Amino acid sequence: MKSFWAVLVLARFAGAQTAELRVIPVQGNIYVIAGDGGNITVQTGKDGNLLVDTGLAAMAPKAMSEVRKLSRAGVYWIINTHVHPDHVGGNDAFANAVASLDINALGRQDGGQPLKIIAHENVLNRMTQPAKPGETPATGAGLPEDEFSTPFKDLRFNNEAIIIYHEPNAHTDGDSIVLFRGSDVISTGDIFTPGGYPFIDIERGGSVQGEIAALNHILDLTVPGHTQEGGTLVIPGHGRLCDEADVVEYRDMIVIVRDRVQDLIKKGQTLDQVKAAKPTLDYDTEYVSANSFVKADAFVEAIYKSLRK
Fold first, then answer.
1. Beta bridge partners of 157
2. C-beta pairs of 8-13 under 8 Å, 24+ apart in sequence
3. Residue 85 CA, distance from chain mean position
4. Burial of 148 (0-12, 13-18, 19+ CB in 10 A)
5. HEC sequence for the chain
């Protein structure tokens, strides 16, 4: 039987062969490239381009083409929100294009100034020391070797303050969210996926309590606009652009399901009994579809195992 990790790679790689990408203006100098694989956030400006995540490896040529359409200035920074291949898969292609001074691919005309790839140190650890026997360690130019171990890391690019916050043991143990302070945009990675239940990757340090804490931190950073609409915009790991109200709804759903599962655990119920009780039933019509990556039982199981730990 294939692992959940293998299914993730195969399912999202399969669709990438024929998928198209869409570029959506967000606000300020921020855009999102959406399609199969994780959303790619692009900050553009006079200094060049900065990306949050790089999508699937199979989509990298298309992603490069879309970045080129936004700006010919080149890519100088990549920030990875976590380890999953639908978010770091394009790292090698972008890094190799810079290393070979492939001006046609990336527009770089700076004599080979290195591309810096930032991520929390747990992302690099997970990429080079896989969680399961038989998984191949990552190598090559696309590793995030500009890693950090502090609660946050900041930088200034295109005259904008960018703050990268580590969110411990959320969807994984290496999650980061990225705040573009001037543009008033947050890129969340897979901590927030409004179209489906979260993938709480227990094997890679994820936990339901960390997931909720990360969503609460996102809410601390967001400021809504008039009548609670707009304001700070939130780019999820997958799916549509959102604002604070969308994050509140998602956070509340996870808290309610967590509390239901916790109550059943206190009553001594086994995992199978908890699944049979269907603690997500009233949310399934909103968060589960035929194409959902995380089904209701998988979400409940992740919560159960996380709480039992």
1. 160
2. 8/84, 8/85, 8/86, 8/199, 8/293, 9/85, 9/86, 11/293, 12/36, 12/37, 12/56, 12/85, 12/86, 12/293, 13/56, 13/57, 13/58
3. 10
4. middle
5. CCCHHHHHHHHHHHHHCCCCCEEEECCCCEEEEECCCCCEEEEEECCEEEEECCCCHHHHHHHHHHHHHHCCCCEEEEECCCCCHHHHCCHHHHHHHHHCCCHHHHCCCCCCCCCEEEEEHHHHHHHHCCCCCCCCCCCCCCCCCEEECCCEEEEEECCEEEEEEECCCCCCCCCEEEEECCCCEEECHHHCCCCCCCCCCHHHCCCHHHHHHHHHHHHHHCCCCHHHCCCCEEECCCCCCECHHHHHHHHHHHHHHHHHHHHHHHCCCCHHHHHHCCCCHHHHHHHCCCCCCCCHHHHHHHHHHHHHC
At 82, list the tokens.
Answer: 């976590």
In percent, the amount of the chain with pLDDT more than 90 equals 78
4-243: CATH architecture: 4-Layer Sandwich (3.60)
Give residue 110's pLDDT: 53
Distance CA 141, CA 35 (A): 24
Comparing CA positions, the residue from 118, 89, 90, 95 lying closest to residue 108 is 95
Average pLDDT for residues 271-300, to the nearest whole number?
96
Give the type of residue at 245.
A
Residues 176, 217 contacting (CB under 8 angstroms): no
pLDDT digits (tens, 9 = 90+) for 2-56: 344 444 444 444 444 557 899 999 999 999 999 888 999 999 999 999 999 999 9
Give residue limits of the domains in the chain: 4-243
CA–CA gap between residue 202 and residue 224 (Å, rounded): 32
